[in-house]
Amino acid sequence: MKFARELAEPWGLLIAATSAGAAWAVQLPVVAAVGVGVAVLAARAGVAVATREKEPAPREARVLDVASGSAEANWLNRAESAADGFVSLSESLATGPLAERVADMEPVVQETLSTLRRLAGRASATGNALSRVDLDAVAHERRRLQRELRTANPEVRGDLEQALTAVQAQADVHARLSGARDKLLAQLQSGALGLDSLVARVAELTAATTDVAVDTGAVRELSDQLEGIRQGVLETEQATRRSLG
User: Taking all residues of the chain, what is their mean pLDDT, rounded to a whole number?
Assistant: First the structure.
């Protein structure tokens, strides 16, 4: 496709026509002159395609390290165990309609788990950032500056107000980080427990279903449940990315 586009490029056609005209001008046969033009056009298109910069590969979402022993690590381990259980259960099913439907859900389970890993990494990064803001010290500085402002003379009032603004900015950052971390942990918990519940429902359906009698309504409920989990973790990731960058 790229080669064809280069053949149709106006500058290439102009160069080819000029080359063919030059060949005809030196009294080459018409067929030979046309051949020269075609050869020039093909050569130019080939060089353009070969030298054109390759399109950059799609950027993958960055996966941050998860702090060992943290709340997010515990919920991520729970989610990973649930995903492993789902795969094991899927592989244990005898060939049939139910096995096919459960197998179709595996990629969505893995996609959800990948998103949960990113959320866990972001939760750890947010926790690290929170540890850099001493909220007690910030509150102490704010009270001190507010007291000084009440009796400050005009010469220093502007400087004190700037200092108070800077201190308040630290408090605002802490509040945003704290809220984001709470949201991340809540979604990690919801996602992990949701996958746990999904595995239990599949096991229940497996025990109550034969290959010739698949409860399509129950299978649809499982798919809807999984889609709800997937959407929830994706929305949390997007919202956190917007709020924290």
Answer: 79
Task: Tell me which H or E stretch contains 208.
Answer: helix 154-208
Domain spans in the chain, listed from the N-terminal domain onward: 2-51, 71-244
pTM given for the model: 0.69
pLDDT in tens, 45-78: 454 444 555 555 545 556 789 999 999 999 999 9
In angstroms, the CA 41 to CA 23 distance is 14
DSSP 107-174: HHHHHHHHHHHHHHHHHHHHHHHHHTS-HHHHHHHHHHHHHHHHH--HHHHHHHHHHHHHHHHHHHHH
d(CA 245, CA 140): 29
State residue 9 phi and psi, 5-degree precision. Answer: -65, 130
Residues 6+ apart with CB under 8 A from 132: none
C-alpha distances (whole Å) from 39 to each of 1, 44, 45, 192 are: 19, 9, 10, 63
